[in-house]
Amino acid sequence: MKSAAIRRWYIVHKWSSLIPTLFLLMLCVTGLPLIFHDEIDVLAGEDYEARLAGIPSAEGGVPLDTMLSRALADRPREVPLFMAFSPDSPLLTITTGPSPDAPGSAMTLLFFDRASGTPLGPAPTGGFMDFILQLHTDVFLGLPGMLLLGAMGLLFVVALVSGAVLYAPFMRRLDFGTLRLGRSKRTGWLDQHNLLGIVALAWMLVIGLTGAINAFADPLTDNWRNTELAAMTSAYAGAAPLSPDRYGSLDMAMAAAQAALPGRSPQFIAFPGGSYSSAHHYAVFFQGDTPLTQHLLTPALIDAQTGALTDARAMPPINQALMMSKPLHFGDYAGLPLKIIWAALTLATVWILWTGVLLWLRRRPGAVERRVAEIASGASGELA
């Protein structure tokens, strides 16, 4: 690689690393407890699934219309927004709000045992994990915060790519894994930064890309609703929104949806008027039947008044990528062993970021030019 190209890549790497560093450190620190959110819920006594036994709520139990009536009896001045199922336990959740388009802050999440129909109470709010999740997701700024963190994630990807480009020319005179700890602290930091960076490169690229995709979840969902969903429900265009008092049977709607998509397990129902449905439909989202496809959802749209099927089709590839990115981002694919690996790599990323900051703080005037000259002459040394 020519000296001019090395200089350009170094500048790209430096600024694409420095600009998002504080945000990335925050995301790593908050991401660690989120990796183990299931285990933390168990320790805090907030894992409802661990307390229940019986047929999974996705497979059967008390009729859905009965469960919905019990939820609305608890929240008499609200309307249903979502009903979610578990493939592993009788746990069923129903989300209500003051209106079909209520914001998340106005929603109430209720837990039920579908096997017995017993209400388990509302979900706790305002706890430690809620604080950590919101800080990690949008730094308490809503959509602008999500987009900001998405941009920082994309810069992180640029930093990783540019670092990988620079790795070969700057390390070609050293054996892989060399740690020159007997020299200056700065040289030790540089070697640790380079070694951990190249070892964890693929993982960091995955986390950076999936984090960026997750940050754009709301715009991607809005785009799906305004394009794909609008096309699926074009026959209802211009019709007045269906009022909640005219909603028909959920059990009839579920039967129609399962007939359209046989062999799949329902994950959740979106009620009319929300971001995942039209103003006239129950949107029943089904998950796949393999460990990989269980995160890919296919909606069946059922006329909420008549219970008749309107349409059922897979979501666009970008939305499928969004669905796949969420569990991959937090290591939710293979239980505790994978989560431990994710945590170890997160700690390695913290050290990579920190050594990068130390190298920049201890930078030496003109060191880059000297290092480029050393590479051209075949020598090995330090990089500013």
Explain this structure to me?
By secondary structure, the chain is α+β, with helices and mostly antiparallel strands. The protein folds into two domains: 3-37 and 142-215 and 335-377, no CATH class; 49-128 and 216-330, no CATH class. The protein is 52% helix and 13% strand. The chain contains 13 helices and eight strands. It has helices at 3-18, 21-35, 37-43, 64-74, 128-138, 143-171, 185-199, 201-215, 217-232, 250-260, 317-330, 335-361, 367-377, and strands spanning 79-85, 91-97, 108-113, 118-122, 265-270, 281-287, 297-303, 309-312. It has an eight-stranded antiparallel β-sheet, with helices on one face. Helix 1 runs antiparallel to helix 6, helix 2 (21-35) runs antiparallel to helix 12 (335-361) and helix 8 crosses helix 11. It is elongated and about 75 Å long. 30% of the residues are buried. Mean pLDDT is 88; it is low at 377-381.
Helices and strands in order:
Layout: H1 3-18, H2 21-35, H3 37-43, H4 64-74, E1 79-85, E2 91-97, E3 108-113, E4 118-122, H5 128-138, H6 143-171, H7 185-199, H8 201-215, H9 217-232, H10 250-260, E5 265-270, E6 281-287, E7 297-303, E8 309-312, H11 317-330, H12 335-361, H13 367-377
Antiparallel strand pairs: 1-2, 1-5, 2-3, 3-4, 5-6, 6-7, 7-8
Distance between the termini: 18 Å
| Beta-strand content estimate | 5-15%
Give the rounded overall mean pLDDT: 88
The structural class is alpha+beta
How many domain units?
2
Rg measurement, Å: 25 Å
The helicity comes to: 40-55%
Which oligomeric state applies? Answer: single chain
Q: What is the succession of H and E elements? A: HHHHEEEEHHHHHHEEEEHHH
